[in-house]
Amino acid sequence: MTTSSIQRERRMTEPTDAKAPTVTLADIEDARPLVDAVAVPTPMLESRWLSGVAGVPVYLKCENLQRTGSFKVRGAAVRIARLSDDERARGVVAASAGNHAQGVALAAQQHGIPATVFMPDGAPIPKVRATEGYGAEVRFVKGVLEDALAAAREFEAETGAVLIHPFDHTDIVAGQGTLGLEILEQIPEAATVIVPTGGGGLLCGVAIAVKAARPDVRVVGVQAAGAAAFPPSLAEGRPIRLPQMATMADGIAVGLPGDLTFRLVQEYVDELITVSEEALSRALLALVEREKLVVEPAGAAAAAALCEEPGRFTGPVVVVLSGGNIDPLLLGKVIRHGMAAGRRYLNLQVTLADIPGGLAQLLTQIGEAGANVIEVAHERISPSLLLDEVDVHLQLETRGEPHAEAVIDRLREHGYTVIDRG
Q1: Residues 176, 287: one domain?
Q2: Is 72 part of the annotated catalytic residue set?
Q3: For the chain, what percent of residues have pLDDT higher than 70?
Q4: CB 28: neighbour CB atoms within 10 A?
Q5: Does residue 15 belong to any structural domain of this protein?
C-alpha cells in the first residue's frame, strides 16, 4: 500500500491553552453571508465510478468549480470583509502557491483594496495570470511557500499592509468551514468526509462544521506523502517543519502547520493519511476520464486516498475536490504519468531472431493482442545478445493492467524473451 496514517487519540486532543483563539460553529455560520457575497455554492455529484470502487455511495464536492477555481476564496472573503477602514486603506499582502492568491485578489478587488501577493518561483502560470487578472501585484520569491510567507511578513512590517494568512487565522478557518455546512445540507446522511490538506485550514473548518451537527461523521485529511507535515507534527504534539518537500501537488505543499490549525486538527479531525505521487496521478486521470472533471493534483488527493484503500471508509463518503487550477502543461504530464502508473503505457524489451520479417511478425502479434505501438527502437550491439539476435525496445499503449499482462503473456507464449521495463 502507498497509504500511511496517523490516527488521533481522543485523550490527546484537549487544547493546550484555553485562552488560545479558536473557531466555533457560530463563527462559521456568521461567516456564511460574507462568503456568499463572493463565492458560490458548489455542486455535489454522485460518482458511480468511485461508488463502484468503494462499494458504498460516494459523492464529489466540486470546489474545483468554485469561483477562482478553489475553496480558498471562502476564507479570503471573510478575512477581507472584516478589515477596518484603516486596514483597507493600507492594503493587503498574501503568500500563496496560487489558489489563496486568487481568492485574496478577487476579494480585495471587490472591496477596492490594493493587494500584493508573494508567490514561489515556478508557481503555475495560469495561477499567476489569474491573480494578476484580479488586480493584484505578484512578486516572486525563491523557494517554497514558507519563503514566500516570510517575504510577505517583511512587506507587512515595511508598509503596514495587512497579512492575509493562507490558513492560520480564525476568519480563514471560519470561511473554509462554510464548505462543511454545504456538505451536510447536500448529503445529510454522510458518514465520512475526506479532505485534501495542506496547512489545515479547510480540514479543520470542515471538521468543526460537520461535527457540530454530526459528531459521528468521520473527517479524514489527506496529504501528499512528499509534503506531509501533519503526521510528524501530530506524533510530536506540536507543529514540526519539514526539512524538504517534493510533490506535484503544490496546492497542499505546506511544510509547517499553523499553530491554530494544528490545535484544531488535533481536536476535531479523526485521521490524517498520505498518498503517493502515483496515486495522485491515477486519481487525476480517472477524474478526467470517468467524471469529466478537471482537478489539480492537490484537488485529487481525497479521491486518491479512496482509490488506494477503498474498504477503509464507511459510506456514504464525501470526497472534496478542493481545486481545479492546473497548468495545461502539467495536466499533460500528469495524465501521461497516470497512464503509465495504470499500465496504460507499456515499455518492453523483446529479444528476437535477427532475420527478414522478424520485426513484422512481432508487430503482428502485438496488433492481434490489441495493443498500439507508439515507438520502436532496435539494439543490435550488446554483450547479452547472440550474433543472430536483436533487442527491440517497444513503447505500447494498452487498455490497462489486465490487458498489459495479456500482451506480455501472448508474446512469451510465442517464444519471445520479454523484459517488462515498466
Answers
A1: yes
A2: yes
A3: 93
A4: 25
A5: no
Residue 318: give the domain boundaries: 4-10+20-70+169-340
Q: What is the pLDDT of residue 386?
A: 67
Catalytic entry in 96, 233, 281, 322: 322
Q: How far is CA 153 from the centre of its chain?
A: 26
Q: What is the pTM of this model?
A: 0.84
pLDDT digits (tens, 9 = 90+) for 163-195: 999 999 999 999 999 999 999 999 999 999 999
Question: In the numeric block, which cell numbers belong to residue 266?
Answer: 488535533
Whether residue 264 is found in the same domain as residue 374:
no
The confidence band for 403, taking pLDDT boundaries of 50, 70 and 90, is very high
pLDDT in the model for residue 12: 34
Q: Of the listed 61, 72, 127, 211, which one is catalytic? A: 72
Residues 365 and 378: their CA atoms lie apart, in Å, by 17
CATH number for 152: 3.40.50.1100
Looking at the structure, tell me whether residues 221 and 296 fall in a common domain.
Answer: yes
**Dihedral of CA 331/297/310/181: which sign?**
negative
Total domains in the chain come to: 3
155 with 301, same domain: the answer is no
Q: E strands of 47-169, at which residues? A: 58-62, 92-95, 115-120, 137-141, 162-163
The pLDDT value recorded for residue 330 is 86
Last residue of a domain, one of 122, 137, 163: 163
Strand partners, 408: none
Q: Taking the CB of residue 211, how many other CB atoms lie within 10 A of it? A: 20
The reply to whether 30 and 152 lie within a common domain is no
Chain position carrying cell 458518514 = 191
Q: Which three cell numbers stand for residue 206?
A: 470542515
End-to-end CA distance of the chain: 18
**Calpha distance 162→88 (Å, rounded):** 8
The pLDDT assigned to 399 comes to 87
Q: H or E stretch including 100?
A: helix 99-110
From 163, 196, 218, give the residue that closes a domain: 163
Please say if the pLDDT value at position 1 is more than 80. Answer: no
